[in-house]
Amino acid sequence: MTSSVKIVALFLTVAAVLFAIFYFMDAGADRERAKIERENQNAVENADDYATSLGDCDAAGRVYNFETGKCRGAERSYWKLPSWLTR
């Protein structure tokens, strides 16, 4: 083989390897983006559920327990709050 054919073959080999690397990197990035998007959507749905349940609990005059994530059945107690907050 002549030197010019060797150079062209080497160039094509390097180009094919670089194409494969960038193609698979892009495919992996797309999968990761899709995964992150699904996680974000789940977080939004959970936040909406949380806000709704917290709001419903507050509207019912009950106390929301953040540790358990549930509405406690007891009525809210204002005895520790200053009088200007309970008006």
Write the layout of secondary structure elements.
Layout: H1 3-59, E1 62-65, E2 70-75
Antiparallel strand pairs: 1-2
Please, could you describe this protein's structure?
The protein has 87 residues and is mainly alpha-helical. It has one domain (3-85). Helices cover 66% and strands 11% of the residues. It has one helix and two strands. The protein has a two-stranded antiparallel sheet. The longest helix is centred in the middle third of the chain and has 57 residues, at 3-59. It is rod-shaped and about 95 Å long. The model has no long low-confidence stretch (mean pLDDT 77).
- Overall mean pLDDT: 77
List low-confidence stretches: none
| Rg calc | 30 Å
Number of domains: 1
Helix content: 55-70%
- According to DSSP, the number of beta strands is 2
- The geometry reads as rod-shaped
Number of helices: 1
List keywords for this structure.
87 residues; mainly alpha; two-stranded antiparallel ribbon; 2 strands
Quick rundown:
By secondary structure, the protein is mainly alpha-helical.
